[in-house]
Design goal:
By secondary structure, this protein is of the alpha/beta class. It is built from 12 helices and 18 strands. α3 (185-194) packs parallel to α5 (228-237), α6 packs parallel to α8 (307-326) and α9 packs parallel to α11 (434-451). The termini are far apart. 39% of the residues are buried.
Length: 487
């Protein structure tokens, strides 16, 4: 019996010893594992701040990024291109975007590689979604149909904060306007601040003219006005009013073969109504029913329209556009003229009833006689006010003005619009001459300070793009100072 008890006690002590050792080992192991975890934290995924890709002899960097996500403004830089590259095209591919075979490089081009190839891309101009960014290298001698020298692509995700329509600030004169771009919304806002403007004008080219009938062939706002809703909301959010309008653009000057007047007026009215509804939805301050209704009515046809026909078409088109816009838009409606200079005693009638603002253009001004150009603008302002008084319109805006260097051969009115613009762009070097820039600066100083008081507003050619923009020129600072004084 004593042997059994002694054996049992030994067995119990052995079990307690084993358990104690096991616990000590477990505790020791746990302690070591904890120390190891403290000494070696878990690996975190690396966040990339730029995207690097290469392909077909082209290398590009997209920066800044958050892995593959892009927001606001990002820069696309080509760091390597094939020999003989003269131009780099930048493009975006994705939902709702036409194929590059049809549009070409739809973001833009860099034609000068001496300072590197790059492009600033404002991602706010596209909805949040997955896309592909592409860079394409072209030679200087590339002919239509030939493949490019090389290209590279990167998959990206646009991830900006969503913005709903924002109400417009109070819309009262003076309207100090600069041209903006739905492709560069943030830059448009910075330009407006720098110029002391209070209004940003956004325009959309929605389609082209049918060469057979003259009808407008246009795309709906959800396609052609991509990015404009956010641009308008951002402008309102930053206390800028907005102007919005739509137009057509043809690659070459079109001569209509079988002009169908009814179809011409009807399709223009339908397009204006669709874009006016877009403007109402996005709380646009002012909708432009037509930039230059008289120019629209001066269509080129195989059988040229007579003066009476053009006058009648201008009246019919004006009434149609205003009537269609008023069905869906409840803000201020502007309608534009190319600028008229009738006999001093005669104020022509235009059926602009229902509109609130008349705007006119002055694009044929020459630097050699600034005083004469300013007087021409005063006369045009008086005429526009007379037109407005006949239909109850009180506000007149100078919606477009361009001063040409004396050396430039201006061909407006003698050739088609596209041919005239091409000719002007070939003479752009004259705009950089210091003597012209000095005269241009004085012209805009006097225009705003002397003629501005007679107008309800004016638009300066100083947006993010355009061959005649004041951006970076001597006149820009002067124009900003005068805009700042104008109340």
């Amino acid at each position: 019996m004593k042997k059994i008890l002694i054996f049992g006690m030994i067995f119990l002590i052995l079990i307690i010893f084993i358990i104690g050792c096991t616990q000590e080992k477990a505790e020791s192991k746990t302690t070591k594992e904890m120390e190891k975890q403290i000494q070696t934290p878990p690996q975190q995924p690396i966040t990339k701040t730029q995207i690097k890709v290469s392909g077909q002899g082209v290398e590009m960097i997209i920066s800044p990024s958050l892995n593959n996500d892009l927001k606001d403004i990002t820069t696309i830089t080509v760091t390597k291109a094939p020999p003989n590259t003269a131009t780099i095209g930048f493009a975006i591919i994705g939902p709702g975007i036409e194929a590059l075979e049809k549009t070409g490089a739809n973001l833009g081009y860099d034609y000068d590689g001496t300072d590197g190839w790059s492009f600033e891309f404002d991602t706010n101009s596209y909805p949040n979604d997955k896309y592909t960014l592409a860079v394409i290298a072209y030679s200087a001698t590339r002919k239509s149909g030939e493949p490019p020298l090389g290209a590279a692509q990167a998959k990206i995700v646009i991830q900006n904060s969503e913005i709903s329509p924002v109400p417009s600030p109070i819309t009262t004169a003076p309207y100090k306007v600069i041209g903006g771009s739905c492709q560069y919304p943030l830059q448009s806002i910075e330009d407006a601040k720098r110029l002391n403007a209070n209004t940003i004008a956004f325009g959309v080219i929605a389609g082209f003219t049918d060469e057979e009938s003259g009808a407008a062939v246009w795309e709906p706002p959800e396609k052609a006005a991509r990015g404009c809703a956010k641009s308008i909301a951002l402008a309102h959010e930053n206390s800028f009013r907005t102007v919005f309008g739509v137009s057509l653009a043809d690659e070459e000057d079109v001569v209509i073969k079988k002009f169908n007047r009814e179809k011409f007026v009807q399709t223009q009215g339908e397009m204006a109504k669709a874009y006016a509804a877009f403007a109402q939805e996005n709380m646009v301050s002012i909708f432009s029913a037509a930039n230059e209704v008289d120019s629209m009515a001066s269509v080129a046809t195989l059988q040229p329209l007579q003066t009476e026909e053009k006058t009648g078409l201008t009246e019919e088109l004006s009434q149609k556009l205003i009537a269609e816009v008023k069905k869906v838009y409840y803000g201020k409606i502007a309608i534009g003229l190319a600028g008229v200079e009738p006999d001093e005693m005669v104020i022509p009638y235009y059926p602009f009833e229902g509109a609130h603002i008349i705007c006119f253009s002055a694009n044929g001004l020459q630097e050699e006689n600034i005083e004469s150009s300013l007087q021409k603008l005063r006369n045009s302002t008086r005429i526009m006010k007379g037109i407005g008084q006949q239909v109850g319109i009180q506000e007149v805006i100078l919606c477009e003005v361009i001063l040409f260097p004396e050396k430039v051969d201006v061909k407006f009115g003698t050739v088609g619009l596209n041919a005239a613009m091409k000719s002007l762009q070939e003479q752009l070097s004259f705009y950089d001459e210091l003597s012209f820039q000095e005269n241009e600066k004085e012209f805009y100083r006097r225009l705003i300070s002397e003629v501005g008081s007679e107008l309800s507003g004016m638009a300066l050619p100083s947006g993010p793009a355009g061959p005649f923009s004041l951006k970076g020129r001597l006149a820009e600072k002067t124009a900003a100072e005068e805009f700042g004084k104008w109340e």
